[in-house]
Amino acid sequence: MAVAAAPTHGGGVADHIHPEPHSFIRRYIFSIDHKIIGIQYIVTAFLFMVMGGLLAELIRVQLMNHSGTFVKPDTFNELYSIHGSTMVWLVIIPLLTGGFGNFVFPLQIGARDVAFPWLNMLSFWIFPVAGLMLYSSFLMGAPVAGWTEYPPMSLLGGPGTSMWAAAIFLIGVSSTLTGINFLVTILKMRAPGMTFTRMPLFVWGQLATAPLLMIATTALGAALAALFIERQFGVPFFDPTRGGSPVLWQHMFWFYSHPAVYIMILPAFGMISEIFPTFARKPIFGYKMIAFSTVAIALLSFMVWAHHMFTSGMAPFLQLPFMILTMFIAIPTGIKIFSWVATLWGGKIHLTTSMMFAIGFIATFTFGGLTGVYLSAVPFDLHAHGTYFIVAHLHYVLVGGSLMAIFAGMYFWYPKMSGRIMNEFWGKVHFWLFFIGFNATFIPMHWLGLLGMPRRVAVYDPQFQFWNQFASISSFVMTAGILVFFINAIVSLRTGKKAGANPWGARTLEWQISSPPPYYNFKKVPAVLAAPYDFAEPLPYRGLEGELDPNVPAPVAAGH
Amino acid sequence: MAVENRDPAVHLDRGFWLVTALLAVLSALAVYATIMWHPENMPQLPEAAIPADQVDQLFKFLTASAAVIFIYVVGYLVYFAIAFRVRASDPPDAVGVQIHDHHQLELWWTIIPTVFTIVLAIFSVKIWAGVQFASPNNGLVVEAIGHQWFDDFRYPGVHGIVTDEMHLPLGVPVTLHVTSSDVIHSFWLPSMRIKADMIPGMINTLRFTPTRAGTYPIICTEFCGTLHGTMNKQVVVIEPQANFDKWLAGWKGKNKNASDAIPVAGTGTVNLTGGDAAAGQKIFAQKCSACHAVGPFSQKIVGPGLKGVLHDPAHPKLVNGEAANPEDAAKILQKGYDGDMGHMPNASQNGISDKDIANLVAYLNSLK
Amino acid sequence: MAISVSQIPHGDPNVDQLYAETRDLRLNGFLLFMVSDLVLFSSIIFAYLYLRNSGQGWPPPGFSRLDVAFAAFNSVVLFGSGVTMHFALENWKHGNFIKFANWMVATIVLGAGFLSGQGYEYWTLYQKMHVSWSGSGIFGASFFTLTGMHGFHVFAGVIYLTVLLLQATNGKYTQHKHFGLTAGTLYWHFVDVIWVLLFSIFYLF
Questions:
Q1: Whether ipTM exceeds 0.90
Q2: Maximum pairwise Cα distance, chain B
Q3: Which terminus of chain C, N or C, has less C-beta within 10 A?
């Protein structure tokens, strides 16, 4: 390793600047700039969210009536299968990793780009292609067995099931490449002086997520490839009549999909850990414990997958370690929640829309996390598994958790992306419609499930009709909130208040340069002297003096 | 690290303690309500078997603990957000109290959840062991076989399958083996708080003891195809034992000549002579009418309407581009159907015998 | 905040130690790629072991054990190519191009030899014992999937090494800058290690 006497700035692969492209296509379509790619991810994922949300509302319309005559049962099964697949693989994961990850964390570590910009572009372009493939499965008989696609049902499903497997496999390739890219970037390209304990917590979130993307997604790829091969070439892996095992799929699927749950929440934790100190004007409470618990959760996530399979007939003594390890995830998660609440104490809290979503996140995520502890207890899980209680729980963590954090992050980083602030009034309308609509939609599902309503049904017992209608109507309120958000995001592009470099008074590096940031990010790669959250101290960076000064020239690109 | 030295002393004001006390009252109310709640108050979800009461104890413990945690987290969250909001009188660059951490506090909120988790784990393992091992396995042994989209049962001493609801005597320990003949189903007895997946090629076992007479639902909770949502049966817990024995004896007589082999997809051709249309109509009502209407082809429920299927020359071609004939209909009934018009289970999945097929074909032939 | 940056004290050792390291980012990326490739193999190996232990005994009724002798010979060919690859890179680092090229050719030939051997083994299985990918239950499924995946990696490796040899001949690499050759060598050793695993679980145990 080269130590000491190296010149302060310049040199080193991380300081390499690509020449700025000028053609529209190289700049905005096939861009290798991490900021453009991040925005591409966000826009594409939100488009898929419109599709997935539409499917969700069709599901809710069907369930308005217990005998469900709006669509045929098989169509209904297609709707929720594609809804789930869309929201997990085409919305939440791309938004949190490819979207916010790409845009925010390279700026936060003072890098000029990610380690492999070209690979980054490839990762992005696989994503819309895979998304279109997933939706094209509607044309040939979409998968019906839910986003989990358990065999033998998935072996019997229409031809679209193979298309589903291929599409998700491609998404997996994209995720794996992104994971590799991010991990190398965070480990190798931090600005001088940015030790691990000086990294912003969003970077910690991405650092813990990247290995999950890399390792877990590959394991899913193996399962999807096996399913595809079995369906298309008749090679038996899962078909019990030919010696295969349907439970094998469940192991392979959940070995990925449990870590995937944390892929969908660890970056969200990171976002909350940025937004709370910024708007409370206080250092994050217990920085080290939050960073440590992030890593602890990522490690534990590989040891608990079989808690999704307590009813599948595992050897009884195997249930115990999975149950106990799952319960232990509550401890690091609890530490984070308590630390966030403590961050608010004694602050000077600015209740912006972003902050309100972050506070809402704590409330709903705590709720979803607690029902997760319920489900970790095997005897209770044996009652609740496969019912609407599960539907309620997973929506509380994925919508009340991940999506709330995404909205908080959108209001927070939108000014950095576009140079303008989203309208705060309509932002608050969005918050209240969404928060009330969301809770009213999913709270009744807890008792619907406990009382006997199984998930993935097109028709149900008439006694459950009232609460289903209540949930459906509430879901329309939630959707209205999301529509307000979309309109606000589009309109604010033109009419929003000019943001300036740092509208929120935040202290991480991305806020110290202009909005939107220039192609090369930093005129000079800054030096970092301390963790970013000491609001009473001067900014802990050196070398940023000329960033906002138009007289300081832009750095020169390395030719080639 | 000089971080601790930089942090100012923490003074918790009266508002904080007031809110803490208020939250304590709320928590106490929530815990009290949880303890007082009893499922007997809920007609939909009585405790009808031995593990049910223990599962409910666990549920109550979880709910009481979760309520306390949730009330405190959200209570402080909302209180802090309001109490420490920035005021109009604050200077624009006002900052909060610059605290970085508090080791004692962090230690406590690591230790307390850890202790809670350990208590929960011990409690859960105890109940888990109760559910797994406590019911003796010397009682009644029943098998349940899932099909698309119904359950069949096998009882000791009864030949063949019992297509009735599941009957169990009150107070006798039951060992229930579940499996499936086609795809994965799940066997859920909500009133008994137990569930096991029915997996083809595998046998899972449930042990419980019915403690309350009555009729309770059996629900499939693993997606198993088009009519998953309608895959329900019932368990009838009978009192006294003599009534159960009578019911069992009835099935023993009825199934005297049935085969003990678990039915598999038939291979031989069916002898269609002597089919009885009236008997066929009854079977059609039981087994077919969920998916097929007795109406024109276009009257589709899951499969097409079957009026005139063997006579109407304008009827769409069902088999190999030729007009359907009775042999084709028998073949589809026997082997099932997978194709452009959807999926139809085969004879063993539908639980229909060769004789039934002959009767059904005679009935279809009578629809003109 | 109103305080200016210049007020910050200088002399932080963490700042003075810069990231201007000479290690190539590509190497890190390539190592991580091999980690995820290893996970891919591990998942299918897990699937194989799971199916193998699902109760009907191994090999399943109607199948005989695979022929160890020929596979052992073929393994020696593959491991030999790992040794020749090692010498190729060492010679490159010492600036001896002729020896490098000879060892590279030897590696490529041995790699191709292994593939031919595997092709012969597949053919024998199919012709004499009627074992096929889709028609022999989980036995054929797991054997052909795993060894096929590995064989594909060897095939890709042979192509890659050929490309590297051509690039080296055309002067793309220097004695000190030769990431491509390093990656090729790592990849080839990786393929060897995977084969050790596969040989053990299919032929030995």
A1: yes
A2: 98
A3: C
